[in-house]
Structures are given as structure tokens and as C-alpha cells.
Amino acid sequence: MTTRTVGAGHGWKWIVQGVNVGRANPRAVYGATAVVALLALAPNVLQAVLQIAFRLEPETQIMVIGATSLVSIILYPLLIGGVLRVIDAVEHGRPAAPGDVFSTFTGGQAGRFIGFGVLMGALYIVTFYALVSAFGEGVLDWYMDVLSISQEMSTESAPASPPEMPMPPAGIGPLMALGIFFGVYYATVYAVGLGQVALGGRPVMQAFTDGLGGALRNVLPVIVAAAIAMAGGFALMLAFAMVVTIITVVSSLVHPALAALLVLPLYLVLLLVLYIVMFGAMYAIWRDVCGPQDAVDRTAPGNDGGAGHDGSRIEL
């Protein structure tokens, strides 16, 4: 199976399909996505609890973030691959349930998902190190200073007047620009490659090269999709901030704690919407770049003892 090149207009199509995903069986798609969204919050909750309970130093915070990131690198490909399978089943009219998100954990297939996640994680780390080494002189020291000041302000003995935040180093502009560029490219690699692992029956290295090649061959639609996603995300966040401000002002007249009780459900709904669109767009990208061009095979991936969409056995 080789990658395909699609037109720039597919970038808009991917976002639209991400918004419309799961209409045929919203319980399965939205339920599976909600499971992943809640599990994705776990590392942030753990970091917050540890920070509140132990007042972690900045160096320790970095270690906790690194540890939770390593766990995420291993678990997220399994969970996201499960969501992609649920979406694929719904799109092809097959039975699906929210619990199918865990289908990737069984049948001896987890190793391919973990292997792909570790490979992508290594690529992220190498790229981050290269960019910081080339353009990020002083960025890590600046970040540690910001963490230290933030920790001081969160303590009970915080100074009356907030301390002045250090100015970011000169190289942070190019570093952020390159970070966005590689972030968008690697996100496309991840979407195509993980789709190949979960739905295309490809082994890790072949899925990885499919992702690299598929992302390069479709730069224009990826740029269009990224621009639309950024603009839409900014508008959505702006609207959310306005709603939160109104709720906070009105609820403070009743009780300060009421704002948190009202805003938290809205935040969870917003998070769920973003995850639904993201996973739907990932599936649409994989289907257009690498997916089968006919709908002959109606069997759920993995239900035939490890067969891919073309009916062949999955190579481990």
C-alpha cells in the first residue's frame, strides 16, 4: 500500500469531516473519545496533586513531567488507535461500542502500537534537542526561572507585589516558529503512521515511513488544515474565555466557589469537542492518504485474527 497525494482543498475537507465524525453512531465515537480525553487529563491532575501536596522544586517538576510523558508515549498510541478503529467501524456501518477503544490492548497487537509511539517519541526528543541546541540558548534557564517564580507566587508566603518575570531569550522566536512547523509535520506523520498501524495492518517501520512520505507529499492540504484549525481554535478559545468571564462575574455575586462548579463542565465539554474533531481529522487524513479506495472489506480490523483491511494477515 503506497501513499497518495491529494489536493489542497482536502485540508478543509479533513476539518469538516472531523466535525461531522460519528454521526452514524455518536454513542460509540463520542464515548470512546471521552474515555481517551479523561485518561489524557490524568497526568495533569497527577502533576497538580503532587505540586500541591509536596511543593515540588522546578527540577522535580521537570522530572515528573518527563515521567508522565514517557507513560503517555506508551499508552496514547494504543488508545488513539482504538478510537480510530471505532471511527472506522462506524464509517463502514459495522457494530461499535465505546469499550472498543481498548481493542488494541488485546490479541498480541499492542507491541506494534507501543513501538510506533516510542519511535515517534524518540523523533520528538531528538528534534527538540536539535532545535534547542541550535536556537534555544538560554531558553531552558529562562523556563526554570519562570517555574521558580510561579511556584513562589502559589505559596502562602507569596510576596504582596508579584515579581517581575524575566524576559525571554532572543532566540525564542525562531525556536517557536520551527517548533510549530515540525509540530504540524509530525502530527501528520503521526496521523498517517498510526492509521497504518491500527487500520492498514502495517508493521512499525513501514507505517513510520508511510507517515513521513505521506506528510511530505501532502504539504499543501496539511498547511490549509493547520491554518483552519488554528483560526478555528483561536475563535473557539476566545468565545470560551468570554463565556467563562461572564459566568465568573455573575456567580461571584452568589459564591466564589460557584464559578468553578459551573466552568468545569464547560471545560470538559470543550475538551471533548476538540478531541472529537482531532481524531476525526486524523482518520480523514489517513483514509485519503493511505486508506483503501473501495469499501469491499466490511470486517472490523483485528476481528479476523489480525487481518488488515485488504484481508491479509498483519505482520508483527
SS field, number of helical segments: 9
Q: On the 0-100 scale, what is the average pLDDT?
A: 85
Helix/strand-derived class? mainly alpha
> How much helicity do the residues have?
over 70%
Report the strand count. Answer: 0
Major sheet description: none
| 3D shape | globular
Strand content is under 5%
Low-pLDDT segments, ≥5 res = 295-316
Keywords: Membrane, Transmembrane, Transmembrane helix
Transmembrane segments: 28-50, 62-84, 113-135, 175-199, 219-247, 253-277
Secondary structure elements and pairings:
Blueprint: H1 10-20, H2 26-54, H3 58-91, H4 110-135, H5 139-154, H6 172-198, H7 204-217, H8 219-251, H9 256-289
Keywords: Membrane, Transmembrane, Transmembrane helix
Transmembrane segments: 28-50, 62-84, 113-135, 175-199, 219-247, 253-277
Keywords:
mainly alpha, transmembrane helix, membrane, 71% helix, transmembrane, 316 residues, 9 helices
Q: How would you characterize the overall build of this protein?
A:
Mean pLDDT is 85; it is low at 295-316. Helix 2 (26-54) runs antiparallel to helix 3 (58-91), helix 2 (26-54) packs across helix 9 (256-289) and helix 4 (110-135) packs antiparallel against helix 6. The protein has one domain. It is mainly α. The chain has helices at residues 10-20, 26-54, 58-91, 110-135, 139-154, 172-198, 204-217, 219-251, 256-289.
Short description:
The chain is mainly alpha-helical and 316 residues long. The protein has helices at residues 10-20, 26-54, 58-91, 110-135, 139-154, 172-198, 204-217, 219-251, 256-289. Helix 4 packs antiparallel against helix 6 (172-198).
